[in-house]
Design a protein that fits this description.
two-stranded antiparallel ribbon, elongated, Transcription Regulator spoIIAA, 24 helices, STAS_dom
Length: about 575
């Protein structure tokens, strides 16, 4: 593969900017900031980071993507699933003995790792990684992530410090510690959660999280929640973050690299799915390789300004579309608005109650469970549904970071199962029509006397050669006694490896004992070259390698008489 560094797309989104778009972009930017503010403050808590880091993550990455990203309307920022994986990575990192570096620095370094991985993947055109985690597996994985987030809100709802892990353990521990529940916090959290559900059900023009933040801050001021034992956000540093390269210090290199790779894979996969979904709404095509540049720039900016990894934000992008944002100017307006919040509203946000943030996170977690998608997967493909359940179980049963491994492993197993058993079919002719047809599909198709023909649909690789050899042997045993040739239509075999080459040679020897000559038709260029290097073509004989099935039939007739021909020559079907 040719390595080519990506060309910077600086200001690409602004070259054709029209002044008439400014009004829509300004309104969209204000709406994006309003919707993003609650999650910006709430999401860092998932990974044990301070609230201001969420605000920083909603500012500098927005600006970086606006300059380098390819999409005019996609909005990047904090994401609940990415934050949950980040939390698991940080837990692994800080479980290493002797680590004294603070969590903010570790998160910033992970953002740099993710950004650099994005740019490396862009350089070698690995945008295909966006499709590595299939939609069913991502659907199941995010459902598992959402349940993990819900369990994580127990302390914010009740004030009880839960030590158990998993799905059932924390609930059991909460029941045992029922006497320690701080009931005012629980009532407030449940009230905020109910308000969020009502706002969603009524399609409120003002987003539910914005309503919850405004009301809860007002009530906190009015009734002095902090003085009544309800936890609040606390001091938020005023001013803007400064650019600095985070130091590695005593952080474990291996855990940071592996953790960054896990965050990169899941955040990029989910981010491109979001980009494609909104791209279809906007009527433009999304190029995953170009998105790698935008996501890479956003995460590098996040790391340099002391925050955490980001990806495409569904909620913020949806608001941008709904309000009518036309370009990345909306991102710049949103970033500017959040800067104003940092500078002038820090004291107001200080009294924001933690149970309200827990309610926002719980509502967000529920939105990650796509029951409609799971039902559709169940209807379409039961095997894919099983893999979705495996991916869902991973984060719950083995932890979020192990859940990423489970999702990747499930993907590999699924791909392997799909590739292990390639379909095959016997071919024949239909009197009066050109070409070859599958005997099991066309009732009028008939086998050519003395001339066996079959098709294999799929690559021949080391893990499926035993199965293919068994199938070819079975096909040979079922051929009529007068059969002299068996020709394999290889037009649907894109790849052949050395193990498969050895298998084909064994099949050739087996057929030779039966008095049947083996032929291959319409080999792909690479497959033919490999068989030639392996000596298989020399053993079979170049005369038994054909450009197409019609050529094979003509050669057979020339050597065995024309009576076998059932129909005129023509292109293969």
């Amino acid at each position: 593969m040719r390595l080519s560094l990506p060309r910077p797309a600086l200001f690409a989104n602004f070259k054709a900017y029209q002044a008439s778009w400014l009004r829509n972009d300004f309104s969209a930017g204000l709406a994006i900031a309003a919707v993003g503010l609650p999650s910006a403050i709430a999401y860092p808590a998932i990974a044990g980071l301070p609230p201001e880091s969420g605000l920083y993550a909603s500012i500098t990455p927005l600006v970086a993507y606006a300059f380098f990203g390819p999409s005019r309307q996609l909005i990047v920022g904090p994401d609940a699933a990415t934050m949950t994986i980040l939390a698991a990575v940080l837990m692994t990192v800080f479980a290493t003995p002797g680590v004294t570096t603070d969590r903010v620095t570790a998160a910033a370094l992970l953002a740099l790792v993710v950004g650099i991985l994005c740019l490396i993947a862009r350089a070698v055109r690995l945008g295909v990684l966006a499709t590595f985690l299939s939609r069913p597996i991502l659907t199941g994985f995010f459902a598992g992530i959402s349940l993990s987030i819900l369990i994580g809100q127990i302390k914010r709802f009740t004030g009880v410090d839960i030590q158990s892990e998993g799905l059932v353990g924390p609930v059991v521990e909460l029941v045992k510690e029922a006497g320690s529940i701080h009931w005012p916090s629980l009532v407030l959290a449940m009230g905020c959660f109910a308000l969020l559900q009502v706002a969603r059900a009524l399609n409120s023009p003002v987003p539910g999280p914005v309503i919850v933040v405004v009301i809860s801050v007002f009530l906190s001021f009015l009734f002095d929640f902090e003085g009544r034992g309800i936890a609040v956000v606390g001091s938020i540093p005023e001013g803007l973050p400064s650019i600095a390269l985070p130091r590695m210090g005593d952080l474990p290199y291996e855990s940071m690299l592996v953790g960054g790779a896990a965050i990169f894979l899941v955040s990029f996969g989910s981010g491109v799915i979001a980009a494609r979904s909104f791209g279809s709404l906007g009527g433009y095509r999304v190029d995953p390789n170009r998105e790698l540049t935008g996501f890479g720039a956003a995460n590098v900016a996040a790391g340099l300004f002391g925050t955490f990894p980001v990806t495409a934000s569904d909620s913020r992008t949806a608001v941008n579309f709904a309000v009518g944002g036309r370009s990345q100017v909306a991102s710049l307006v949103a970033a500017g608005t959040l800067i104003a919040v940092l500078l002038f509203l820090g004291n107001v946000l200080r009294i924001l109650p933690i149970p309200a943030l827990g309610a926002i996170l719980a509502a967000t977690a529920l939105s990650l469970i796509d029951l409609a998608a799971l039902k559709q997967i169940w209807r379409v493909n039961r095997m894919e549904f099983a893999f979705a359940l495996i991916a869902m179980w991973g984060p719950i049963g083995l932890g979020v970071l192990n859940g990423v491994v489970i999702a990747i492993a499930a993907t590999l197993v699924y791909i392997l199962i799909q590739s292990m058993y390639p379909h095959d079919a016997l071919l024949g002719r239909i009197p009066g029509r050109d070409g070859f047809y599958k005997l099991h599909r066309e009732a009028e198709a008939r086998a050519v006397p003395g001339f066996g023909a079959c098709m294999i649909q799929g690559s021949l690789l080391f893990f499926n050669t035993d199965y293919i050899q068994t199938r070819l042997t079975s096909i040979a045993e079922g051929l009529p006694a007068q059969t002299r040739w068996l020709v394999i239509d290889a037009s649907a075999i894109p790849q052949i490896d050395s193990t498969a080459a050895a298998m084909i040679e064994e099949v050739y020897e087996e057929l030779k004992k039966r008095g049947i000559a083996l032929g291959l038709a319409e080999l792909h260029t690479d497959a033919r070259a490999l068989l030639d290097r392996a000596g298989v073509i020399g053993k079979i004989g170049p005369a038994m390698i054909f450009e197409g099935m019609e050529d094979a039939l003509l050669a057979f007739e020339a050597g065995h008489g024309g009576a076998a021909r059932l129909a005129g020559a023509g292109p293969q079907k």
